[in-house]
Amino acid sequence: MNIRDIEPHLAAIRDKTLREVEIPEEAIDEIDFEKPPDPEMGDLAIPCYALAPHLKKPPPEIAEQLAERLEATAEDDDSDSGLIGTICPNGPYVNITLAPSRLADVVVTDALDRERFGGDVVETSEHWMIEYSAPNTNKPQHLGHVRNDLLGESVATLAEFGGHDVERVNLINDRGIHICKSMVAYQIDGERETPDEAGLKGDHFVGHYYVRFNELIDDEYDEWKSTDEAEREFRDWVEREREADRLPDELGEQEPQIREAFFESFRDNYFNDYSELGERARDMLQRWEEGDDEVLELWETMNGWVLDGFDETYERLGVEFDHVYYESNTYELGREIVEQGLEAGLFERLDDGAVAFDLEEVGLDDRKILLRSDGTTVYMTQDLGTAMQRFEAYDLDQMIYVVGDEQDYHFDVLFRILAELEPELEGKLHHLSYGMVDLPEGKMKSREGKVVDADDLMDEMHDLAEDAVRDRYETLDEDEIERRAERIGLAALTYHVLDYNPRTNVQFDPEESIDFQGRTGPYCLYSYARIQSIGRRVGGWPDLDGEARAEALQALGTDREMEVVRHLRNWPDRIEEAVRDLDPSEITEYVFELSQSFSSLYNDPDHRIVDLEGPRRDGLLLLARAVGRTLETALDLIGIDVLEEM
RNA sequence: GAUCCCGUAGCUCAGUCGGACAGAGCAUCGGGUUCCUAACCCGAAGGUCGGAGGUUCAAAUCCUCCCGGGAUCACCA
Questions:
Q1: Residue A97's beta-bridge partner residues?
Q2: Looking at residue A80, what is its pLDDT?
Q3: Nucleotide nearest to A471 (CA to C1')
């Protein structure tokens, strides 16, 4: 018997008993085991509410009688080999407690022997593709990107461990007006300077010019605000607002504020209609699309710098991809699909030549443009194209996009259009939507340089960890300090970021930084390191099997030991849940709980392994070893590398 | 204006496909080391689950309305 046989085994006994009292099959199907709120009550519970209508008795009475019958059925069943400890009614529930020593034997044996303990739990193995990161190449990554990177990487690793076949994909947004902004600023300000000369990482170097461009635009805009053109735009707007009764006839003392609000909202219009720098950036984009050599060369150079920078960041974060695509290559994909859809009558051509999809056909409002009137593609076109291409090339069962929740609507529309184009894709598309990371003062803004930079943050975590390591050791090899500081710092960051449910909007306070104490990555690493320390102290883990091992494991049974055992038992179920929900925070929670239950045991005077002897000592050593193995696996799934010593 | 997400302890968050007394970490207060790493352990205090109705044997969880915060509704990405 192993862990995953326990529940089916008990379910068989339960169902057999229910049949004896003539509960209809469909009612039996409805009944699932629940987990009692307190382990004191038992390991599994059968709620009896649903049986009340069939037996015409109050649930507590049913529970009492059912418990007796279950006991009888279990006694007759010889496949059980003493797994069930007690069966007792408790109000409307029947609680089943498993025999401690037997449970410890089954669970720890599984945890020690199984090649991938907790892995390969999904019902059917599927082919998944997960797209994440998808950065723009005009600026370095910030904490928001880190959340995306870590989420995507972790979900991919989780899905693989759960038993799926996974393709990790990055689609790099290397074209568009935002890149041209950095390029224009570079032409104006930074001719011939390179990241090396500036002593900066390539992505930071280019990001500097992106910020610079926005400063230049701000200056230009401020100057423009006092021109006659600006005044005319303002007056026209005021006129329109008055007609719509949104402004009074006389602005009076309010005028300066109203004026300021107008110019704030007019910023994009200014950029598109009046700005010389805007003109220059758009002109550059135009020339890029025409294949202008000079522009292409600058573009390639600057993109190269950024991508080199990204590679460093990815490597440090432990993020990897199987396939990397570039929008400069894929932005035309989809044009053909749209044209086919047009012929098939799915889309319509508007009077000005643009192609649109009528969203009312899928229950939404308005329409979505798929090809501009000048024939060029939009974001949606590309997403349609890449999706169709991927399903064809990889025969996917599931395509998952890890993208922020501000794009919920985009993906809703994308999936509906895809389902119209190819009904088979229905249910195979998923947007893993996650909340924003905000600072105490509000949103991060790259264009204003108000961000928590990914590389800086990793450096800070490293430094904090380094201080902590130095505090603890008077003499330690410098390389070793570096190695530990890096792992501990990254563990703290990774754990912190993944410990939120993905949909949660996270508030991150850079001042308060990230803790190393309590529910944190370092805490979990520490638990692991202490377990390894026990192994070293006793001169290596005992190599027991067969009878000797069974005897050792069956010597376990105290409350503290059983709490650890119960957590181990939950591991495969937890993986199943985390994969189903695409939620690494299930794993961060698990790692903490397992670490915590072991820490309690570790600190208890009655469970000091070095003070014990005989089978109980061996049993505890095997339990510690099993926890260590499971921690290592679990931490790996959230991208954290363990340390043998801390 | 419409649609979507969120509102739980002083703070940051779990719990939201209905079930047993609403949980954790941090912060606060009190305790623990002649002993395997104190990045630890044990304990205390802290909550009208935004509000009001409703459905149900049972609601933080489902439905309706209201209040508050965020996002989205481009021939941008």
A1: A86
A2: 59
A3: B39
- Nucleotide B30 C1' to residue A598 CA (A): 24
Checking each nucleotide's C1' against the CA of A624, the nearest proves to be B36
CA of A496 to C1' of B44 (A): 28
**Beta strand A93-98 pairing with A84-90:** antiparallel
- Average pLDDT, whole number, for chain A? 92
Contact A117, A635 (CB under 8 A): no
Nucleotide nearest to A380 (CA to C1'): B77
Q: Distance (Å) from CA A486 to C1' B33?
A: 29
What residues are paired with A172 via a beta bridge?
A326
Span CA (A461) to C1' (B32), Å:
31
More confident residue, A441 or A205: A205
SS3 of A422-437: the string is: CHHHCCCEEEEEECCE
Protein-proximal nucleotides of chain B (any atom < 7 Å from a CB): 2-6, 12-15, 17, 19-21, 23-27, 32, 35-42, 57, 70-77
Residue with minimal CA–C1' distance to B15 is: A501
* A363 has pLDDT over 90: no
Cα–Cα distance between A564 and A107 in angstroms, integer? 10
Q: Residue for token digits 């190695």?
A: A483
Neighbour-count burial of A126, counting CB atoms closer than 10 A to its CB (0-12 exposed, 13-18 middle, 19+ buried): middle
**Above pLDDT 70, what percent of chain A?**
99
Per-residue pLDDT of A139-178, as tens digits, reads 999 999 999 999 999 999 999 999 999 999 999 999 988 8
For nucleotide B33, give the residue with the nearest CA to its C1'. Answer: A603
The nucleotide minimizing the C1' distance to residue A491's CA is B39
Determine the nucleotide nearest to A595 by Cα–C1' distance: B40
ipTM > 0.90, yes or no: yes
Secondary structure of chain A: what % helix, strand, coil (to 5)? 60, 10, 25
Distance A585 CA to B15 C1' (A): 13
Q: How far is the CA of A517 from the C1' of B29 (A)?
A: 19
Among A24, A383, A324, A342, residue whose Cα is nearest residue A167: A324
Complete DSSP assignment for A232-259: HHHHHHHHHHHHTTSS-S--GGGHHHHH
Pick the closest to residue A635 from A500, A490, A514 (CA basis). A490
String of DSSP letters for A363-400: T-SSEEEEE-TTS-B-HHHHHHHHHHHHHHHH--SEEE
How far apart (Å, rounded) are the C-alpha atoms in residues A141 and A146?
Answer: 7
Which nucleotide is at minimal CA–C1' distance from A178?
Answer: B77
Looking across all nucleic acid strands, the nucleotide with the smallest C1' to CA distance from residue A350 is: B75
CA of A512 to C1' of B25 (A): 14
Q: Is residue A77 over pLDDT 80? A: no
CA distance A396 to A428: 8
Q: What residues contact A428, with CB distance under 8 A and at least 6 apart?
A: A391, A396, A397, A398, A399
- Residue A349's SS3 state is strand
Q: How many whole angstroms separate alpha carbon A410 and alpha carbon A27?
A: 42
- Protein CA A200 to sugar C1' B74 (Å): 36
Joined tokens for residue A595: 């670490």
Contact indicator for A436, A506 with CB cutoff of 8 Å: yes
Give, in Å, how far the C1' of B68 lies from the CA of A400: 33
Contacts of A520 (CB under 8 A, 6+ apart): A492, A495, A496, A514
